């Protein structure tokens, strides 16, 4: 099939394997923070929500920094779906990313299950750790190793967890939930953790990409297609050859600087 012709390249499997290992490490590190080691005590302490939130956020930030320049470090089916909607990834790669993410989550959860004493395993965070950080993934310079996009993504995950854990468990990552659910065979309301984050992620990505017009090339195409490049008054010092778009305020076109 033409749509899957790129799966025979080394680069393709390099990206897919990066998603697998990134998800494995993310689940292993993140779920490890949900283990309540005081559960065997007579008066067990409740789970530390700040600890869990920081661990998930810093883990995802680290994985994005390590694997972002290889595969894009989606590490979330909701992010992959958002990339398909905004045409930033092929359907064939998205399918294999999804499989790699789910398999990595299962392996990571299985490793944690095997090394954790049965007395403190609990539910292994099946309902612990949406569309906010999907927007961060759409930034054109997100894979720049000198930038701080990975930190922004991690902080968005921390914020989501701090707010949503008391309400729903904050499972913003379908694959992250799938792994421990498979290992512990706990499927109660599992579909919610696929539908919610995926819909939220694709909606947030679509609004960011198509309504707020952050991409300069898309702005130009939009202007040429729908606005027919109208002649607008330019401020002094403006490059007359610089394409303009009604998606942006006039102050953004005072000088031909690179837009991010």
Write a structural description.
It is a single chain. With 260 residues, this protein is an all-alpha fold. The chain folds into 2 domains: 2-211, Glycerol uptake facilitator protein, CATH 1.20.1080; 217-253, no CATH class. It has 10 helices and no strands. Helix 1 (10-32) packs antiparallel against helix 2, helix 2 packs across helix 7 (149-168) and helix 4 (91-115) crosses helix 8. The chain is globular, with a radius of gyration of 21 Å. Residues 126-132 and 228-260 have low confidence and may be disordered. The chain crosses the membrane at residues 12-37, 49-73, 94-115, 121-138, 150-170, 190-210.
Give the tally of β-strands.
Answer: 0
- The topology string of helices and strands comes to HHHHHHHHHH
Helix content: 55-70%
SSE class: mainly alpha
**CATH topology heading of the largest domain:** Glycerol uptake facilitator protein
Q: What is the molecular shape?
A: globular
Q: Give the domain tally.
A: 2
How far apart, in Å, are the first and last alpha carbons? 36 Å
Indicate the proportion of strand residues.
under 5%
Main beta sheet, described? Answer: none
Kindly report the name of the CATH homologous superfamily of the largest domain: Glycerol uptake facilitator protein
Q: Nearest-angstrom radius of gyration?
A: 21 Å
Average pLDDT level: 73
Poorly predicted parts: 126-132, 228-260
The CATH C-level class name of the largest domain: Mainly Alpha
Q: Number of helix segments?
A: 10
CATH architecture of the largest domain: Up-down Bundle
